[in-house]
Amino acid sequence: MWLDCQANFERLSYPDSVDYFLKKVKQAGFTDLVVDVKSIMGETLFKSKYAPYMGEWKGFNRPDKYDMVNVILKKARKHKLGVYASLNVFSGGHNFYDRGIIYDEHADWQSINYWMDGLRPISEMKWNYNGMLNPALAEVQEYQLNIIREFVTMYPSIKGIILDRMRYDGITSDFSLQSKAMFEEYAGVKIEKFPEDIIYWAKDENGADIWKRGKHFNQWIEWRATIIHDFCADARKTIKDIDSNIDFGIYAGAWYPVYYELGVNWASKKYNQSVKYDWATKNYQNTGYAELLDLFMGGLYFKEVTIEEVEKMNEEMMTNRTEAAMGKGREYWYSVEGCADMANELIQEATPFYGSIYVDQYEGDKEQFARALKMALDKSDGLMLFDIVHIINSNWWDVLSETLNP
């Protein structure tokens, strides 16, 4: 069960409240928690020497001496729950609140995005709540590794670390001059037109703005995935050097055919993407990081549960879709079942795969939610549920108990 730090900020600020909800999580059939300890703003939920402390959210202030992590660890032991700590890695701001490290001392670390109207820092893109950083910067990576090292040292009884947002913002990032220079050195090329030789903007048949691939696109995709792979390796080593028994895991979306846009390759190194995907170079498979993980939490974030549901929907609604890479109709993987099947093929048993369900997608449809839970459990090595706040708001503890404790 995932506990988001913002949605549950006040709820996790009282020991009695923590105890109450952890008891319900255990009774529902869960074995472990994932607790956010570093927010998308770059603020930590523990007192860090490196990052600002998140002691307030939406007007609610935690007592200065309150140690959320220790409280959760203590209550989790009482209820025989393991605790994984989640850290949002390459995110440093919340653009809806103008808050985070990219709005303070680390504005120079923020992603520079190439939008249809030109290059702009991500803090100016107010429709995008994620104030992402540039993962390629050495100082950004060192900063994140210092925080990971600090946390594991402070809380040695933690069961594992889950890194979230270990990625780029999207295909439009990062187009800073630093990234340009680093790519040119990596690829052994001199970019004549930047960013257009990587991606450029054009109009589709309906007059809408779309991005298209430039001549260096595939090498650029490979380089970005290399950046994320190498950081993943460094993060694993940082944790294992302190305690080899601490699990190291990742959350990422499991919709793999378009996830390369975020610079992420969570597949096994044995999987050769270039056979199937025209964006992948022959060397792209070397960026796969499944073998570096002790567990992978892959988001199966779809309302449709079965492949059959997708096929039926395509028959009934033969209209153009707006989702990335959809075209007419939806692919088979646009379902919990299909996406899980694809993930298993990509991972090739290199690491345990935990099918992850986004509760809010099933609002008002308890039966479909129960079917999604069962499918994720059937198709993967375990279940991760995001987030406890949606279970609380919908009061769906009964469907969890009925599904997980048959």
Automatic annotation (TrEMBL):
<dbReference type="InterPro" id="IPR032280">
    <property type="entry name" value="DUF4985"/>
</dbReference>
<dbReference type="InterPro" id="IPR017853">
    <property type="entry name" value="GH"/>
</dbReference>
<dbReference type="Pfam" id="PF16373">
    <property type="entry name" value="DUF4985"/>
</dbReference>
<protein>
    <submittedName>
        <fullName>S-layer protein</fullName>
    </submittedName>
</protein>
<dbReference type="InterPro" id="IPR003790">
    <property type="entry name" value="GHL10"/>
</dbReference>
<dbReference type="InterPro" id="IPR052177">
    <property type="entry name" value="Divisome_Glycosyl_Hydrolase"/>
</dbReference>
<keyword id="KW-0732">Signal</keyword>
<feature type="domain" description="DUF4985">
    <location>
        <begin position="276"/>
        <end position="402"/>
    </location>
</feature>
<dbReference type="Pfam" id="PF02638">
    <property type="entry name" value="GHL10"/>
</dbReference>
<feature type="domain" description="Glycosyl hydrolase-like 10">
    <location>
        <begin position="20"/>
        <end position="269"/>
    </location>
</feature>
